[in-house]
Amino acid sequence: MEYDNTNRGSIWMNDKKDTENHPDFKGSLNVNGQEFWVSAWKRKEGANPKSPALSFSIQAKEESYSQVAQTSNEPNDAIPF
After folding, report:
1. Could you tell me if 25 and 13 are in contact, meaning their C-beta atoms sit under 8 angstroms apart?
2. CA 60: distance to chain centroid?
3. Residue 26 CB coordination number (10 Å)
4. E-strand spans in 1-81?
């Protein structure tokens, strides 16, 4: 039996963070069978302690693939990796 990842996700420390604007964590999320990329940033030092510890950005994986295909010189059916 295969493990069902529907409505589950995970994030991991971003070991390729080069600038403060890059996320501290990256990962993926499945919502009702649709796949998403997840980026998360830690709360900045000195921020309101009652504010959330992490802020998130979510992007559909299909959306990010089409953006890469549109901005590259490769044909639109190319796999973006």
Report:
1. yes
2. 9
3. 18
4. 9-13, 25-31, 34-42, 54-60
Nearest CA-CA partner of 25 in 54, 5, 49: 54
CA distances from residue 47 to 25, 42, 50 in whole angstroms, order as listed: 19, 10, 9
**Which pLDDT tens digit goes with each residue over 40-66?**
999 877 777 777 688 899 999 987 656
Quick one: tokens of 45?
A: 């030092």
Q: Work out whether the CA dihedral 46, 47, 49, 52 comes out positive or negative.
A: negative
pTM of the model: 0.67
Q: Give the residue extent of every domain in the chain.
A: 17-71
Q: Is 62 helix (H, G, I), strand (E, B) or coil?
A: helix
